[in-house]
Amino acid sequence: MSVIFLLIAASTLVAAVFLAAFIRAVRSGQYDDDRSPAVRMLHDHPPAPNSLTPNPSPKERGANPSDQ
Amino acid sequence: MIERFQYDNRIVKNFLFVTIMWGVVGMLVGLTAAIQLVVPSWNFADWGSFGRLRPLHTNAVIFAFVGNAIFAGAYYSLQRLLKARMYSDMLGKIHFWGWQLIIVSAVITLPLGMTTGKEYAELEWPIDIAITLIWVVFGINMMGTIIKRRERHLYVAIWFYIATWVTVAMLHIVNSIELPISMTKSYSWYAGVQDALVQWWYGHNAVAFFLTTPFLGLMYYFLPKAANRPVYSYKLSIIHFWSLIFLYIWAGPHHLLYSALPEWAQSLGTVFSIMLIAPSWGGMLNGLLTLRGAWDRVREDPVLKFFVVAVTCYGMATLEGPLLSLKSINAIAHFTDWIIAHVHIGGIGWNGFMIFGMVYWLVPRMYGTKLHSVKLANAHFWLGTLGIILYAVPLYFAGFFQSLMWKQFTPDGFLMYPNFLGHTAGDQDGLRTARYRR
Ligand code: HEM
Ligand code: HEM
């Protein structure tokens, strides 16, 4: 069953990578605000339809949350 | 100066198109395989036999239908969540065409009988290498976009995509280490029970990180979007993510209960499977509760309907799975059609319905059109829901009876029902032979 050590090693390595990512995320304040991200993702500020026309005004954006 | 940029919608449209196309193909092949089980005369030639069409079905639905849907959803949501265009259009194109080429090569090689024989990893070594390369292309494109993002916070869906990418890369590489003996044939590097363990460590986590984590990402993006309200608890979604990631990877041995695998490893698999109920149900409730106070809209909007059934099926599959991991229940269900029912509650109910909802939501937005017919979408929804019920419920009964029949012996100690297929309704000849033999 020696292969089980390979699997444990690979799994532990990935787990360690995620643990490091988790600690980094917490330290860098990713989770300080656990409310507003859920709301902000609802608002797409659509980029200009093409680079020649300006961004829609904030009012228009609010009125038409669908984006292209 | 206002910075201007456009999202890359071309890539989303492309992936959406092939999702639908391969969905039709994959499910038609599934239907053919299902008919073959009842009407064996539908097995035509070598290439059209059940043994070759079955892996074609699983590869087509998992890697083509589900895979392309993941990419469509991820390319759409990543750009919006990160407020940035994808890192590279070129990489996106390579990713798209490369992935389709891999699928086409699967469609050709599997019916020809070129296979490693490892479930969900049947494709031979040259294709394995291609998968690795294209996966890396996707990874670079995703990470590049994350790095150049204009939004500091990484929304929970993105974490799910990242975890999917990292883990699938590792699983695919470790499980696919093989010795080529020709262009079309290779042998696994591992032997016997060692190979079985690697295979199901991969197989289980393929379910976890290809059919589950990316779809949770899609759920946490598209469900709030379609309902136009924030997820019930963002905090819970973060806990859901991190606990799933740390638990999932250790549950693989539940596919090898009663095998030659050491007892402690089997128990470990069971324990982690049971623990998985908590985050899974936390996630399901988080999804469903997002719709609290919006149930009147669910009644009208087919997109939300699809999502409700999808999330419910996620809950059912993740309750059933841990139960199946208990040795006493696994002794009944293993090798029977019960597993097939479990698989399709997950595959059609959870993945399929998430995809249908997502496609109905995305297509009108991507093309600036309206749905051709909401009525047809509703019909689709009800037919599909009925289909899942009619698919799963009879198989639960069938599985149970199969298991009972297999455990019966003649007074001489032979199996009472040696040829199970000989007892299905379609194979009357088989039935007669079986009777005659007894
Ligand atoms: C019209 C829809 C579908 C039909 C008729 C169908 C039919 C089948 C059949 C007949 C089998 C073989 C069962 C056996 O060996 O006894 C099978 C296996 C399988 N199907 Fe489907 N299928 C459908 C949709 C899907 C979808 C959407 C998914 C996943 C996204 C899926 C995933 C699988 C998997 C993973 C297996 C292998 C199960 C195992 O080895 O335990 N199927 N399907
Ligand atoms: C906590 C969640 C889950 C657990 C603990 C779990 C557990 C299990 C167990 C014990 C088996 C049977 C192994 C056997 O005796 O052959 C199984 C099979 C399977 N499950 Fe699950 N399951 C879970 C969720 C899901 C979900 C959400 C899906 C699909 C999206 C899924 C797809 C499958 C597939 C495809 C197989 C068949 C593997 C094969 O034999 O080919 N599972 N699962």
Describe this structure in words.
- With 68 residues, chain A is mainly α.
- Chain A has a domain at 1-30.
- In chain A, 53% of the residues lie in helices and 0% in strands.
- Chain A has helices at residues 3-27, 36-40, 58-63.
- The longest helix of chain A is centred in the first third of the chain and has 25 residues, at 3-27.
- Chain A is elongated, with a radius of gyration of 22 Å.
- Mean pLDDT of chain A is 73; it is low at 48-68.
- Chain B has 438 residues and is mainly alpha-helical.
- Chain B folds into 2 domains: 1-189, Cytochrome c oxidase-like, subunit I domain (Cytochrome C Oxidase, Chain A); 209-385, Cytochrome c oxidase-like, subunit I domain (Cytochrome C Oxidase, Chain A).
- Helix content of chain B is 71%, strand content 2%.
- Chain B has 15 helices and 2 strands.
- In chain B, a hairpin with a 2-residue loop joins β1 and β2 (185-188).
- In chain B, α2 (50-82) runs antiparallel to α3 and α6 (192-227) packs antiparallel against α7 (234-248).
- The A-B interface holds A 1-4, 6-7, 10-11, 13-15, 17-19, 21-22, 25, 30-31, 33-35, 37-42, 44-45, 47-51, 54-55, 65-68 and B 2, 4-7, 9, 80-81, 83, 153-156, 162-163, 166-167, 170, 174, 190, 193-194, 197-198, 201, 221, 224-225, 228-231, 234-235, 237-238, 242, 245-246, 249-250, 261-262, 265, 365-366, 368.
- One protoporphyrin IX containing FE binds next to α6, α11 and α13 of chain B.
